Amino acid sequence: MAADCIFCRNGDNTLQKNEAAYAVLSWSPATPGHFLAVPFDHAESFAQLSGRNLSFLFSLIESTYDVLFERLKSEDDFLAKCYEDLFENPPLHH
Length: 94
Known about the structure:
Elements: E1 14-17, E2 21-25, E3 35-39, H1 51-74, H2 78-88
Antiparallel strand pairs: 1-2, 2-3
């Protein structure tokens, strides 16, 4: 964990995680349900991530999409609750 990394100071807004990455709702969403998939490894570019970590990252993206899609269908106020929590506990900005 890097003290100056905004992504390392995520807080309690994690939607899902696996051994190589985690997913959080965007604090500046382009659309409802917009989320970020963040690898635990620090890299200057996407191309620097190992094949194994990329595999876990893409798996996380797929599973988070599936979870959000199902919850959005079944819970009308799911995103409202998520964003309310996000605004009450915003990530630290750099």
